[in-house]
Write a structure and sequence with these properties.
51% of the residues lie in helices and 15% in strands. The protein has 380 residues and is an alpha+beta fold. The radius of gyration is 21 Å and the shape is globular.
Amino acid sequence: MDFNLSEEHIMIRDAARDFAQTELLPGVIERDNNQHFPDTLVKKMGELGFLGVMVDPKYGGSGMDAISYVLIMEELSKIDASASVIVSVNNSLVCYGLETYGTEEQKENYLTKLATGEFLGAFCLSEPEAGSDATSQKTTAIDKGDYYLLNGTKNWITNGGRADVYIVIAQTDRDKGSHGINAFIVEKGTEGFHIGPKEDKLGIRGSDTHTLQFNDVKVPKKNRIGVNGSGFRFAMKTLSGGRIGIAAQALGIASGAYELALKYSKQRKTFGTEICNHQAIAFKLADMATDIEAARHLVMKAAWEKDQGENYDFSSAMAKLFASKVAMEHTVEAVQIHGGNGFVKEYHVERLMRDAKITQIYEGTSEIQKIIISRSIIRD
């Protein structure tokens, strides 16, 4: 085993860290307060190659590996999880799905623009009655010969109001269950496609989350991804890779909170000494550092397996389950270490605490990750 990053990985990590510190940090509190989507910053992330990290350069991507991707995600998430989830969705759920399962025409028309940041993508699976149970799709796509007629509602869609390209999962043949589901590419502005109001969220408030409505939307046959009936498998495999991105986001949130708490503990004094010298605080920092390092290894292992072409469903579920737990627990501890200052916005840790919660929910709740893990170990 080699636990050292390569020189290239270090350069990538440092570039992401520099961008996060110099570009994302200024204004991050204001964006959170006002639910302001970082349009200009998204364009800059596209220029840096952050929106098509693993996409083949022939389609406009950076051609980097999954290790590079999680390094970028961690550094961005330390500062602004709203920005990092934009990167995660575009990379893991949209670009990956199109590059892996799309036709050459679909790649030329959409992937080349998504990978460079010219377009932004959204992944539409969740519905009011179908979140964790992805087979219970109420959105339908009826085959009409030359096109499909799409009807239904999708909610909790990240990039919902800003995306140019939407990958929509819909039921084509209910009698076939999971084998009757398909994935479709829908362009913004298509007749019958309506975007609902922006959600007012607890965390990741700078990201753009909407409910989408499809009313007799005509989707050309050429915009179906994969063979007929392959949509459920497409969604599950795409989400498996997406969990690596969200695990890296959770890792970054936890790591960012820990770094702030450590710095504060070396500055704040009580009873004549810095609070880091009190055992109650020192032990909190020790627990935080240990859990974050363990989470980092799980995330890196999942990314490494993806790079090796191995099955990463099991490892990505473990990484997301543990990293999100660490993020939630230790952002709370970071607030505690800051005391009263932790409860106000200017010290950043309260925002990280609010952002942490979503990592236990989206792209498969923690309970779903336990189902995936338990089925795998019982089957083996």
